[in-house]
Amino acid sequence: MKIRGRNKVTPEFNMSSMTDIVFLLLIFFMLASTLVTTNAIDILLPKASGKTENKKSVSVSITKDLNYYIDQKLVGESVLEYELKDLLGGKDEPTIVLRAEKSVAVENVVKVMDIANRNKFKVILAVQPNN
Q1: Which residues does 94 contact at the CB level (< 8 Å), separation at least 6?
Q2: For helices 80-88 and 106-118, what crossing angle results, to 10°?
């Protein structure tokens, strides 16, 4: 008489637990990636070979002496934000063309970009074309 054991090991591999782990990892990484945000100011850099023309834009220039000009009108740094709000307040797509000399420190350019970011103005950084 042949006696069989009740606990028989099957040679099959069950993949359901492995797929559960993969789906949980996928959900974890999807949620973790949406929580990561970068704080950056969006600026549009025109190509050096093309022209940027925008009839509704206001030009802000910064000289090497740190004088601020709005469309060739000298403006103090303390009233720059007020003047830009006054000029661009009623426009549907307010745009600032930012022109800064090479020797101007980055922190002065970032001040204008910060004003634009707070007031939801688009900034275009003007560059000299390559010849």
Answers
A1: 56, 58, 88, 119, 120, 121, 122
A2: 40
Q: Is the separation of the CB atoms in 106 and 39 below 8 Å?
A: no
Give 128 or 84, the one with higher predicted confidence. Answer: 84
On whether residue 91 sits in a domain, the answer given is yes
With respect to residue 28, please indicate whether it lies within any of the assigned structural domains: no
Maximum pairwise Cα distance, the chain:
109
Contact 66, 55 (CB under 8 A): no
CATH number at residue 80: 3.30.420.270
Per the structure, the complete domain to which residue 78 belongs is given by 43-125
Distance in angstroms (rounded) separating the CA atoms of residues 92 and 105: 31
Spatial neighbors of 123 by CB under 8 A, at least 6 apart, are 41, 42, 43, 44, 95, 96, 98, 112, 113, 116, 117
What sign results for the dihedral spanned by CA atoms 7, 8, 13, 14?
negative
pLDDT digits (tens, 9 = 90+) for 51-81: 555 556 788 888 888 888 888 888 888 888 8
